[in-house]
Description:
This protein is α/β, with parallel strands linked by helices. The chain has helices at about 20-35, 60-70, 90-100, 125-130, 145, 150, 185-190; strands at about 10-15, 40-45, 75-80, 105-110, 130-135, 175. It has one domain (about 10-190): Rossmann fold. α3 packs parallel to α4.
Amino acid sequence: MPHIERGMAVGLFGGSFNPPHEGHLLVAEIALRRLGLDQLWWMVTPGNPLKSRSELAPLGERISLSEHLARDPRIKVTAFEKTLGGSYTADTLAHVKAKNPQAHFVWIMGADSLQSFHLWQKWREIVSMFPIAVVDRPGATLSFLSSKMARTFDYARVDEDDIGTLWKRQAPAWTFIHGPRSTLSSTALRANGRKTSP
């Protein structure tokens, strides 16, 4: 787990990154800039219960590709979730919170994940654990209106004009960040047999 100092604002950006691409980097950069974060943890997960393991590249390869792509020193590529032994996201975040009570965290997710977010294990616990920033992705702009998470926690939505203070807020609190979008997707890159190579 990366080192952080007391009072830091840290974004948690998890995913399979299979492979990582410029769209992921754009989400990370937007989150760093718009949320005023000190660090962003690029958390490469060992696996995803909602996706097939057969198409998952080795963890070491995904870490290496992510490190090559994410050059900003504020972005810390990590795979500490592997040491937790097959944890769900909610368990990983609870572990992060317990180990770092002196820091402020924001969960970062692409809007394309919002539609299926209610299928995640303990998704309500995730929303109640840390503030969440949902970053716009192509074809998912309206997901913040139609997703179950957005409807259930509509009362906790923070106006985009106030997102610079999101990391200071008590969860549940979430916002939708509009901005530049990349059409790249890991699914399309895998279908074309491509990966972002060092």
